[in-house]
Amino acid sequence: MLSQKDWPEYKKIAQNVEQGGNRDLLINWYDQKYQLFEGGSPAARKCCELLSQNLITSDHLQILDVGCGTGDQARLLQSLGVQEASFYGIDMSKAMLESAKSRKLYKELINSILPDIPYPDCHFDIVISAGTLCSPGNAPVETLSEMIRVTKPIGLLCFSYRLNWFENEESGWKKTHKQLVQKGLIKELVRQIDAYIPSQNIIGLYFVCQKK
Ligand SMILES: C[S@@+](CC[C@H](N)C(=O)[O-])C[C@H]1O[C@@H](n2cnc3c(N)ncnc32)[C@H](O)[C@@H]1O
After folding, report:
1. Chain segment 101-143, per-residue pLDDT in tens
2. Atom nearest to 139 CA in ligand 1
3. Is the separation of the CB atoms in 190 and 197 below 8 Å?
């Protein structure tokens, strides 16, 4: 887990990327520090819990994990009873993907930089993204539309935002999220506030949405 000690360096690099700096510095940071995320972040645990509580079918599910990191979402979801599923993951950090691969829980793991999601339209029953959206320097705001594009109609999307970055107009996340809901592309089923990075008192905003 991201600790008090690792926070200043991470924050500096992530803010620099957010202001148009070199993304490779953040990729390198994740490559070096991937072990901090093994075991799953509070965001991963909360998203998996909410998703498992809101599943509407027990059919075999195709699940895409956006910013899969060390692959704890598949492990957590399986431990919460989501057994009938094939997991697919996307991440920009090769070290994160190697760690996810070692769990042998994902059918496919792709090294890609968001917002690009290299899958066809309406491909997944579920798209999950923990700790990756609406966080400075990480996935850009266009990622949400891409996630909706690859989700099947009536499929579920479950994701976390950083509450303070969502509320900051500069980020553009609140505006984009609201527009996509107002256009009827997704419907909010669950919206909850909970812990996100406890060591920094950063709070998360968690959603389960349904694609129309
Ligand atoms: C804070 S970690 C969260 C990892 C995991 N989902 C969890 O909650 O434990 C964010 C992850 O998103 C990935 N990521 C961030 N921005 C990305 C981007 N633009 N494209 C692809 N992956 C990205 C990082 O490499 C990292 O693995």
Report:
1. 999 999 999 999 999 999 999 999 999 999 999 999 999 999 9
2. 19
3. no
